Amino acid sequence: YAQLGIDFAKQGQLIEEEAKAYDFMGSVYNYKGEIEPSLQYYLKALAISDSLGLEKMQGQTHGNLGLLYSEAMDHNKALFHLKQAIAYNSKLDLQKRVANNLNTVGLVYLNQSRYDSAEYYFLEALPVFQKLNNQSGLSAIWENLGIIKYNLEEYEAALNYYEKAFEIDKVLGDKRYLSISYLNLGKVYHAMGQPE
Q1: Model pTM?
Q2: CB-based contacts of 6, cutoff 8 Å, min separation 6
Q3: Res 29: pLDDT
């Protein structure tokens, strides 16, 4: 259907819709784990968005490119696109996108073991998620901060963050995130010499 959307947009010279369709196709291929076609569709979407000055679309596509490059472990390109996304989304006051982009920048730095930078971006995202009352976003931030503290062997701080995430995950009832919380709590208790 996405390809039909692209074809229809081209036929009707609906250039903005064409950019949206390309961006969507990029996400479809990214979801399937097909990086190269995903990249090509995102770049087509970005080229159209840039040429028309579609700032909302630019923010979205830069964010998607940032995620793609992050998953491909191309840290420099991920950071470039994510910071572009933050700039566009901040300008348009798209707070949920900003918070997600900040969190993803933090994850890129976390994957590089650049803990100070990761912590900075997670703490930047935290008040935005709080303002939005985005509980799943808050849980992710607490988990990510816990990972930093765990890796730095600051187990009391890690435990504090993991417990905050756990409490949110219990309320949300998300079994996937609950299992992650249990695992993280178990790891930190074990590291503290309290395996039970």
Answers
A1: 0.90
A2: 18, 21, 22, 25
A3: 94
